[in-house]
TrEMBL record:
This is Copper resistance protein B. The keyword Transport does not apply. One of its GO terms (molecular function) is copper ion binding. Pfam families: CopB (PF05275). Residues 1-34 form the signal peptide. One of its GO terms (cellular component) is cell outer membrane. Keywords: Signal. It comes from Salipiger aestuarii.
Length: 162
């Protein structure tokens, strides 16, 4: 039982973002080469879920994304996940803002703040500490510890295949 990670034809199609990426990268190249001792800053957005759900009684919008800025030595990362019904009520929303720094070739350590707003409950705020990275066999793994003023602490372990 493995995950097939081979490229398919649709992965090789050109995307509109690639047409803008090269000129944008070349415009920043002189600044990056001016100080060869420092890694240039970069940024990115990865969306795992961005959908509009149409139901018989009500519709909803759901998202899950990660965006970051920084360089190879230090990154500022924002993770967001949630769902909102048409008409305004946010059913659930989880956000994390954290600083992420490499601790090995394949793993980063992170520390930051997490905010959770479950439906019908007051917002919860936590400190979050953990490790994220790429395990053997190309699995993304993340282990996080959530700490707050409340007596219970939360923990989370996630994996994603290639």
């Amino acid at each position: 039982m493995g995950v097939d990670c081979r490229e398919t034809r649709h992965m090789n199609k050109r995307r509109p973002g690639m047409a803008l990426g090269l000129p944008l990268a070349l415009s920043f190249a002189p600044a990056a080469m001016a100080n060869p001792g420092m890694s240039p800053a970069d940024w990115g957005i990865r969306t795992d879920k961005l959908e509009y759900r149409m139901g018989e009684e009500e519709n909803a919008f759901a998202w899950e994304f990660e965006t970051w800025t920084g360089n190879d030595d230090l990154r500022l990362v924002w993770n967001s996940e949630g769902a909102q019904r048409d008409g305004g009520d946010v059913e659930e929303m989880d956000n994390q803002i954290r600083l992420q720094k490499p601790i090995t070739d394949f793993f980063d350590g992170f520390a930051g703040v997490a905010a959770s707003t479950p439906d019908g409950a007051p917002g919860r705020y936590h400190g979050v500490f953990g490790v994220t990275g790429l395990a053997p066999q190309w699995f993304e793994v993340e282990a996080a510890l959530y700490v707050s003023e409340y007596p219970t602490s939360g923990r989370k372990w996630t994996t994603k295949g290639c």
